[in-house]
Amino acid sequence: MIKPIMKDVLFLGQKSEPATKNDTMVIKDLQDTLAAHRNECVGMAANMIGYKKRIIIIDMGFIDMIMINPVIIKKSAPYETEEGCLSLEGTRKTTRYSRITVEFLNKEFIKQRKEFNAYFAEIIQHEIDHCDGIII
């Protein structure tokens, strides 16, 4: 189901809870909502659609990648950038890392460890910040 985009900074500023197999409807809602906003958005966290769960989705261009309970375990090459967000007005400056390694569960709840660079690393960091209650 396509959900409205959360704009309440008090809600967005709260840490998300770990997701479980009982949260599969959140994944479906994230997929539907990202598809509806694909022209203006490349990633979403569950709290952006009203669920306080550690689930993110990233538009990889050829497929949407679901990450359940993602954690950045390694990061390198910091840089300054400016980002926008569907949940916020305008853009804000932030520090990101060019290379990250993330541990997460895929949508089948199988543990994964993957490295990401550049553009996709930035998107993933933004969405994991959402899970941690960090607003750019």
Describe it for me?
The protein has 136 residues and is of the alpha+beta class. It has a single domain, classed as Peptide Deformylase. It contains three helices and five strands. It has helices at residues 9-12, 24-36, 118-131; strands at residues 43-45, 55-59, 64-84, 91-105, 111-117. The chain has a five-stranded antiparallel beta sheet with strand order 1-2-3-4-5. It starts with 8 loop residues before the first helix and ends in a 5-residue tail after the last helix. The model has no long low-confidence stretch (mean pLDDT 96).
H-E string: HHEEEEEH
Name given to the CATH homologous superfamily? Peptide deformylase
User: What gap, in angstroms, lies between the N and C termini?
Assistant: 27 Å
Rg calc: 14 Å
Number of domains: 1
How many helices? The count is 3
Q: How many distinct beta strands?
A: 5
Largest sheet, strands/sense/barrel: 5 strands, antiparallel
Portion in beta strands: 35-45%
Topology, element by element:
Layout: H1 9-12, H2 24-36, E1 43-45, E2 55-59, E3 64-84, E4 91-105, E5 111-117, H3 118-131
Antiparallel strand pairs: 1-2, 2-3, 3-4, 4-5
Summarize this structure briefly.
This protein has 136 residues and is an alpha+beta fold.
Keywords for this entry:
136 residues; alpha+beta; Peptide Deformylase; 5-stranded antiparallel beta sheet; 3 helices; 23% helix; 38% strand; globular
